[in-house]
Specification:
The complex is a heterodimer.
Chain A: H1 3-29, H2 40-57, H3 63-81, H4 87-103, H5 117-148, H6 153-158, H7 171-174, H8 176-183, H9 187-218, H10 224-236, H11 240-253, H12 259-283, H13 287-295, H14 300-311, H15 313-329, H16 332-337, H17 346-355, H18 361-381, H19 383-393
Chain B: H1 2-39, E1 53-61, E2 68-77, E3 84-92, E4 97-100, E5 106-109, E6 112-120, E7 125-134, H2 142-147, E8 151-155, H3 168-175, H4 178-208, H5 215-222, H6 224-227, H7 230-241, H8 247-254, E9 269-274, E10 277-282, H9 283-308, H10 313-321, H11 326-354, H12 358-363, H13 373-383, H14 387-411
Classes of the chains: A mainly alpha, B alpha+beta.
Chain lengths: 397, 419
């Protein structure tokens, strides 16, 4: 019997169970539960006993019976130690425990004799740990944003830990922040402006980028290599170094506070990456298809419209979604160019809300939900296209 | 024959490229060069507006005589700094209405009052009055007079186009005692932000490359921080970290981990004592770096995942036959396979983090030791309102960028196209 794998197993599995339980406790606290002790040591010991019992029992019982009984015992002791919690909280602990013991299915004393078992255990639990960690760290701010938008300022100041959404209130009370931002702060208009700017940028960028990308991908001309490297180099220059000259010129031309001005800047800044992404795809289209088109007497316009565009719809969709995302999320130029509330985009409007320190935070968060939700929905729905766009465009960001 | 064909091809290529190239040159390349021009000038934000002559028209009724009206033009030079030369003024009167005793600078011709006001110095103001009467002896319609807007024109120097240059801006940029601090802060932020994002991205990619239940869901949510709008996310973090009623501080105090709330975004240093040494941690900067890592590790994740999925499976099988454990497999197979992509990622992300503006601006506004070069551009240009200084800082950024790019292309430029 090797003791090293056993100790590693006991330590790391207990650590994992304690972590998951602690996250559950934090989430429960945020529902307004008064839990003030994290009891890390005791919970860790308890988890240690559970892991030990699990491995000692081994495969002598039916797996299902084993995990149910062990989980019930664990939960019983857990309740004894952390008294005063409601039923749903303890039910959560039981579920976590069931999930955890089910994960341990393979583990018994024989299993610990396998080759490289310590490393396998470490990797196994490390990836479990990573799933929980990443999911929690990433989703928590989004959760907070969403939940805060349903609270009131008074309730948040009274107890910042009570983020529960009360379902007993009527709907108008729950969604009050949303009514306020749409009625008082005119968010309907900002959504409209943002959509116009984003969709407009996508259309104009594609109109400019498709012919240019075709030329770079297919035609021979003087300065081609120079052009394709300079596309990448131009792409590397950040918006912050363009801001001052553009601000001065746009002020003098009267393009500030106008949607046209934003459209011009967004199109120009997304064009290099659009051309770069499209020309790569165009190169992969077999040249014979175009030659056939040439034989039919098509000119370049006909070839682009009738052959290239239909064949490269997936790539065009990626570019369109990527450009849409950039334009929808853009902040620096809208901050610089817009100071009249009538021309605000959503991002600029939310920034404007914080300018007034009196603005209650639930309005701010409701605004944030309004700007975040569409882009996340689009992302989840078109994930395949957007991911390939992101991978190609991720030199920037 | 082939000659003409290639000529046509060339012409087509230039026609197709022209609109895009023109737009990019005008909006991206031109400003970079314009920065050089502006950075050698003393320009304030208020100088940008070209001075223009303005007139506010006020119509006054004369109660004793309804056939007459008094028009007062409040004339002024919109600029407090610059003169305007050769000012022309014109206003149209309705039919049958004539001015009485017109000012000597003006003429009345075919229903129009035309005046030549000459030069106005900076901040010039004048109340210019005209008495008008109806030749039909009827009452004058006040509305009709008021609705007609006067036209003014004048010549003024555009301060941006003059040829007065100065080195003052650059002297100020480099003589500032804070310049070194600024540069160091920028490098801290850039370096740790980049390395952190790559490390987390590597872990996440390694994770998603395994098979487990809910893997596609995990891949989606891993990209959320990058896909979400920076404004919304930055404000959510600000609220979360708020010392007074932020969730994080409230949680930590609740569980007794800290005694009193920490202002994570507003405190410059945190003094830690570790093994008897006192360490001064740049607290606000660290928090901002955390946000940066949180927001941009998805990009590193995407890149590394794409590479990991291309690693041949039989490499791992062969290693298994040779008796290698998971750790050795990672060190001896995975890591060598992804070093190329890691170095490219590092360079690219380094350049981009170096230029990051929005994140820091929204979280701290550059306060409590988080002022980086891009933040300085904004502060000089728009908070201090010194456009010239802002441009000079931009030039410094561009110079450093060019150095980075040369290094980038020297080291890995050729390999960048292979991925």
């Amino acid at each position: 019997m090797k003791y090293k794998p056993l100790f590693i197993y006991l330590f790391i599995s207990s650590f994992f169970l304690t972590l998951v339980n602690s996250i559950w406790k934090i989430m429960a606290t945020l529902q307004g539960l008064k839990l003030t002790e994290i009891n890390l040591n005791i919970n860790f010991l308890l988890a240690l006993f559970l892991s030990l019992a699990f491995i000692l029992i081994g495969k002598r019982f039916n797996h299902l019976i084993k995990i149910v009984i062990l989980s019930l015992i664990f939960t019983f002791f857990y309740i004894l130690i952390n008294e005063g919690a409601p039923i749903w909280y303890n039910a959560g602990i039981l579920l976590i425990c069931l999930f955890f013991t089910n994960r341990l299915k393979n583990y018994d004393l024989n299993f610990l004799r396998e080759d490289f078992i310590s490393e396998k255990i470490v990797f196994d639990f490390l990836s479990l740990f990573a799933i929980v960690f990443f999911a929690f760290v990433i989703l928590f701010p989004f959760y907070l944003m969403f939940v805060t938008s349903f609270k009131t300022q008074a309730a948040l100041l009274f107890n910042p830990l009570d983020l529960s959404i009360s379902l007993t209130n009527n709907l108008t009370e729950t969604f009050k922040s949303y009514f306020v931002i749409f009625n008082t702060y005119d968010f309907g208009r900002y959504i409209y402006t943002s959509s116009i700017v984003s969709i407009g940028t996508v259309i104009i960028t594609l109109i400019f980028a498709i012919p240019a990308a075709y030329a770079v991908a297919r035609l021979n001309f003087f300065g081609k290599t120079f052009l394709s490297t300079s596309i990448l180099i131009i792409y590397m220059f950040p918006a912050i170094v363009l801001v001052i000259p553009l601000y001065t010129v746009f002020s003098q031309l009267g393009l500030r506070n106008s949607i046209e001005g934003l459209l011009i800047v967004y199109t120009a800044t997304t064009l290099p990456v659009a051309i770069y992404m499209l020309q790569g795809y165009f190169k992969s289209i077999p040249k014979e298809i175009e030659d056939a088109g040439l034989m039919d007497g098509q000119n370049w316009f006909g070839i682009i419209i009738k052959i290239i565009i239909p064949l490269s719809l997936p790539a065009i969709a990626s570019v369109a979604l990527y450009v849409f995302m950039i334009a929808w999320n853009e902040f620096l130029f809208s901050l610089m160019f817009l100071d009249n509330p009538k021309t605000f985009t959503l991002s600029r409007a939310i920034n404007h809300l914080t300018g007034d320190a009196e603005t209650p935070r639930q309005y701010l968060m409701a605004g944030s939900v309004v700007v975040t939700l569409p882009i996340l929905l689009i992302f989840v729905y078109f994930e395949k296209y957007l991911v390939s766009g992101l991978t190609a465009g991720s030199v920037k960001g | 024959m082939t000659d003409t064909l290639s000529k046509i091809e060339k012409r087509t290529a230039y026609t197709l490229l022209l609109p895009a190239v023109f737009l990019v040159f005008a909006i991206v390349l031109f400003p970079i060069f314009a920065n050089i021009w502006i950075s050698f000038k003393e320009v304030q934000l208020k100088d940008i507006r070209i001075p223009e002559p303005r007139a506010k028209k006020i119509v006054k009724i004369i109660p004793e005589d309804k056939t007459k009206l008094k028009i007062v033009y409040r004339l002024r030079n919109s600029s407090l700094i610059q003169d305007i030369n050769n000012i022309k003024f014109s206003d149209t009167l309705p039919n049958n209405i004539e001015p009485v005793d017109l000012d000597s600078r003006c003429k009345f011709k075919s229903k129009k009052i035309i005046c030549n006001f000459g030069n106005w110095e900076a901040g010039y103001k004048e109340n210019f009055e005209i008495l008008i009467q109806n030749t039909n002896n009827r009452e004058i319609d006040k509305r009709a007079i008021k609705d007609q807007k006067p036209k003014l024109s004048g010549d003024a120097d555009n301060i941006l186009l003059t040829t007065k240059f100065t080195l003052k801006n650059f002297k100020n940029v480099f003589n500032e005692n804070e310049f070194l601090d600024l540069l160091l802060t920028t490098f801290y932020f850039t370096f740790f932000g980049t390395v952190g994002a790559i490390i987390f991205g590597m872990f996440a990619a390694q994770l998603v490359n395994q098979k487990f239940y809910g893997r596609t869901f995990m891949r989606s949510i891993l990209l959320f921080p990058y896909v979400g709008p920076v404004v919304a996310l930055a404000y959510t973090w600000t609220l979360m970290l708020d010392p007074n009623s932020g969730t994080l501080n409230a949680l930590l105090v609740n569980f007794g981990i800290i005694d009193k709330p920490i202002n994570l975004l507003g405190q410059k240093y945190l003094i830690l004592s570790l093994f008897g040494f006192e360490i001064k941690l740049r607290l606000a900067l660290t928090t901002v770096i955390m946000f940066e890592i949180w927001r941009y590790f998805p990009l590193a994740f995407l890149f590394i995942l794409a590479r990991l999925q291309a690693v041949p499976k039989d490499l791992y099988e062969a290693a298994e036959v040779d008796g290698a454990g998971p750790f050795r497999k990672f060190i001896n197979i995975t890591l060598p396979q992804i070093t190329a992509i890691l170095s490219i990622l590092f360079m690219i992300r380094f350049i981009w983090n170096f230029n990051k503006f929005e994140d820091i601006f929204l979280l701290t506004g550059g306060a409590s030791g988080t002022r980086t070069l891009p933040i300085n551009v904004y502060q000089q240009g728009f908070a201090v309102s010194n456009i010239g200084m802002g441009s000079a800082v931009s030039i410094v950024i561009v110079m450093l960028l060019i150095i980075f790019m040369i290094i980038y292309f020297k080291l890995i430029g050729k390999r960048a196209n292979e991925i």
